[in-house]
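Lab notebook, entry 76. We have the chain sequence and a SMILES string for zinc ion, and the next step in the workflow is to get a structural model of the bound complex before anyone spends time on docking refinements. Request logged below.

Task: model protein plus zinc ion, output C-alpha cells.
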Amino acid sequence: MSDDPTHGETCAVCGKSTDGNPGTAHLYHDGRRFALCCPMCLDLFQRAPVRFARGEHRETLLQQMLEEIKWQDSGR
Ligand SMILES: [Zn+2]
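Result returned:
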C-alpha cells in the first residue's frame, strides 16, 4: 500500500521517525493521531497528552516531566 498513513510519522515524544518500527503505538487525542515509538514514550505522552498535543517545545516539556517523575518517585 503506497498510502500507508503511518509513513513519515515521527514519535510525538522523542521526535524519532517511526517508519518501519513495528513497536509503534498510536494514540488519538483531540481528534488527532499521535505516534509513539516505544512504551516509554507512550507512558510519557499519556501523562500529559494535552501538552504534547498543544505543540509545546518538546525538549522543555520532556525535561519538566522527567523532573516531575523523579520528584514523585523519590518519596518511595
Ligand atoms: Zn519516542
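Notes for the group: The chain has one domain: 1-76. Worth checking against the assay data. The chain has three helices and two strands.
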